[in-house]
Amino acid sequence: MASTDEIVRTIVLRARPSVVWDAIADARKFGEWFRCTIDGPFVVNQINNCRSTYPGSEDAEFQILVTAIEPETYFAYSWSPGDDGTGADQLDQDIGETLVEFTLKPTSEGTELTIRESGFDALPDTHRGQSYRRNSEGWDIQATNIADYVDG
After folding, report:
1. pLDDT at site 96
2. Residue 41 belongs to a domain with what CATH number?
3. In this predicted model, what pLDDT tens digit does every residue of 99-113 receive, in sequence order?
4. Exposed/middle/buried for 146, CB within 10 Å: 0-12, 13-18, 19+?
């Protein structure tokens, strides 16, 4: 039976790890491929306010809390994946949070990037299934977006 607690996407990119890392750890560049604006640089233990620029979701707002930055190998943040109906996904202990992790490994082809979002089983029943489905589809799109951005 497939896990409902985590979503994992692994892709091999032609770009060097330093290029992939820059696309993930630089908030402006992250926003270009993730399709959002971010209010400042990524800093561990700091909340960033984000606004979607994704077609059809323009102006939807969300927050991320950067939890780890390990240069050229690992970047992580937590966020609340549940939509409360207002269009704003703020960090919310009542909804719960998931952890998003980007792990980079150099390969002979370039970089293996693993994107993992976990913690769905701890979300309330009212948010768990919809959040898992929406984010599973979303990470398919974002894996393509970052590949186009760094390999383009």
Report:
1. 80
2. 3.30.530.20
3. 999 999 999 999 999
4. buried
User: In angstroms, rounded to a whole number, what is the distance separating the alpha carbons of residues 148 and 20?
Assistant: 11
Residue 132 structural domain? 6-151
For residue 92 the two structure tokens come to 């919310």
Flag whether 1 is in a domain: no
Helical segments of the chain, H only: 17-25, 27-34, 125-151
Give domain status of residue 82, yes or no.
yes
Q: Which amino acid is at 104?
A: L
Q: What is the pLDDT of residues 4-47, one digit of tens each?
A: 899 999 999 999 999 999 999 999 999 999 999 999 999 999 99
Q: Note whether residue 144 is domain-resident.
A: yes
Residues in contact with 32: Cβ distance below 8 Å, sequence separation at least 6, in sequence order: 149
Phi-psi region of 96 (alpha: psi -120 to 50; beta: other; left: phi over 0): left
Q: Is 132 exposed, middle or buried (0-12, 13-18, 19+ CB in 10 A)?
A: buried
Percent of the chain at pLDDT > 70 equals 90
Condensed to tens digits (0 to 9), the pLDDT of residues 48-61 reads 999 999 888 887 88
Number of domains in the chain: 1
CA-to-CA dists, residue 57 to 36, 49, 60, angstroms? 10, 16, 6
